[in-house]
Amino acid sequence: MADKKNDRKKIDHNRSADVAALAVLEQNAGLDEGRVETAFDRYLKMQPQCNFGKTGVCCRICLQGPCRITRKADKGICGAHAYTIVARNLIRAITSGASSHGDHGRHIVYTALNMLEDKAGGYSIEDKDKLFRVAERLGLDTENKDERKVLEEVAGLALEDFIKASDDPCKWLESTVVEDRMEKFDQCGISPRGIHTTIAESMAQTHMGMDADPVNLIFQGLKMALCDYIGMHIATDLSDILFGTPEPVTTEANFGVMEPETVNIALHGHNPLLSEMIVRAAKDMKDEATEAGAAGIKCMGICCTGNEVLMRQGVPVLTNFLSQELPMMTGALDAMVVDVQCIMPGVKAVSECFRTRVVTTMSNSKIPGSYHVAFSEEEPLERAKEIIRLGIEAFKERKGQEVNIPQVKNKVTAGFSMEALEEILGAVNPEQPFKVITDAIDSAQLGGVVLFAGCNNLRVLQDHSHSEMIRELARNNILMVATGCAAGSAAKMGLMNDEAVELHAGEGLKSFIHALNEANRDKLNGNKLPLVFHMGSCVDNSRALDLATALARQWDVDMPKIPFAASAPEAMSEKAVAIGSWWVALGIPTHVGVVPEVTGSALVNGIALQIAEDVYGGYFIWEEDPAEAARKILDAVRERSWKLNLHRKLAEQYDTPVSAGY
Description:
The protein is α/β, with parallel strands linked by helices.
C-alpha cells in the first residue's frame, strides 16, 4: 500500500517543471493529515480518461445519446458518421472559445460607452494617441473631433462588429489583415457578418438534424474562429485606450514574489476592468494595511488578468493556470480576486484550509461558498477597496502564523505592445521599423519568428514543453514573442530577461538583440531586452497577429509566405481551439502540444494537418514531444524563409511581382 502511495506522489511531482510548484506539492505530499487536494491529484484520480471523448467521437447533442462510434456501431442513432460528430464537436468548441473572448471584448466596449455617459466612474481615455490611430485604421474621419466623440464612433463600430444587418466585412477584420487574406476569406465564404450572428449560425448548424457535411462544418468553424480574432482585437484596442498601451517594464515572477509581512492579493482571470482599479486602490490603502500590522499591500497576477496588470502596471507574476491553487498553500496569500475564465472551482476548497479569501466579482462567474463583491462600473474604485479590506482582514488572521514561501523568482521584462516594438525597432530604422526584422531574416541572422501562446495542461508536464522549446528555438536564432500562460511559463522559468539571452540565444539572435539594446540604450531605463518578448494576455494574440501582418506588408506578400509560426505547447481550453483555428485560416503553421479531440475522424484530422494548407496556407502540427515539436517548427519556418528568398530573387530577376503561390 505504501508503494502505491509513493508511486502516486512521484507521478504527481512529475506533472510540473516549475521548482516552486514542486516545492509546494512536495510539502503537501508529506503531510499525514490535512493533505490538500489539488488539480494534480484530481488528474490522477481521473485516469484512465475516456478515449471516446479524447478522440471526439462521443456525441451528446440530442437526448437519444450519448452516441459513441465503435467497430460495432459506426454511426450514431441518427446516422451521423464519425466525421460529422467530430466536426460538430470541433465547431462547438470554437464557438465557445470565441464567445468567451467576445464576452470580454463586449464588456470593455460597454464600459467605454458608459464612461462617455458618465456612468462609469474612475475610467478615462488614458491613450488618446492610440484612440486616434485605431479610428484612422477603421476609416473614421477624426478631423475637428474631440477624443470623446472619436471614442463614441470607435465603440459604435465595435458594437457593429458584434451584430449588424449588412453583409459588409467586419471592420476589425478587414482593417488588420493583408488584402489577400480578405480575398481568400470571401472566396471561401468565411468572412463573418458579426460575432453574435456567427455564434447563432454555428449553434444552429450543429444542432441535431442539421449540417452533416464535415467540410462545410469546418468552414463554418473557421468563420467562427475569425470572430474570435475580431473580439480579441477589439478587447486589446479598447483596453489600451482606457488603461494605456503597454511599454517595457521590469519586475519578477514566481512564488517568491510573495512577502510574509505584506497583504498579498492575487488578481486572477482575464478582464482588466476591476484589476486595474484594485492596483490603483492598493496604492492608496497602505495606511489601512499598516494599521493591521502589515508592511504594505502587494498585488500579483495569475493567468491573463495578471498579464494585463503586468504589462501596464508592472505587477509581478505569481503563477499561471495549472498551479493557481498552490500559492494559497504557502499560507501567505490573503485574497484571490477572480473575474472570468480559467478559474478552477477547486480554489475555494483549498482556500478554506489557509484563510485565503476567494472573491468572485462577475455575475457570470461565481463559485459556491466564496465571497462575492459585484463589479460595478459606476463605483469600481469603491468595490476595489471593499475587496482589499477582505484581504487585510485575512492578513490579521494569519499574522504571526508560519508561512512557507518557496524562494523562487526570476526577473521578467514585459510590456511589448506593437507600439513598443515599433519604437524599439524604429531606433534602428525610423522609416521602416519592421524592416529591421525582415532584413535580419533575409540575411539569415534570424531564422524566423514564433509566437508561444496557450495555457497549461496536465496531460503534459507543466511548463516543461514551453521552456524546452524556447531554449531550442533560441539556439536556432528564432525571434520569439509570447502571450497568456505561455508567457507566464517563460516568465516563471527565467526565460524572459536579458540573462536568458546570454545563456540560450544562438549567435544570430544574440547579435540581433544586442543591436537593439545598443540602439535603445537611453530608452530602456537601464534594462536590456529579453529572450522572449511578452506581448500580453490571451486576447493580445491580436498583437502577435499585427506583428505577423506588419512583416507580410513589409515583404509585400500574403501571410502564408512569411517565416512565422505559432505554438501552443500546453493547449487546454476551447479558447485555444479557436485561437489556433484563426491562425491557420490566416495562413500560419500552428503547433499544438496536446492532440485535440479530432483524431476519431481521419477526414477531419487530415483537413487540419494537410488539406488546410492547400486552401489557406496554414495548417496544424500535432506534437507532444517538445524536442520533436521544435524541430517541426524550425522546418516550417526555414522552408518558408527559403521559398520567400527564392521567389523574391526570381521576381527581381524577371522584374515581376513576387509569386502569389504558397
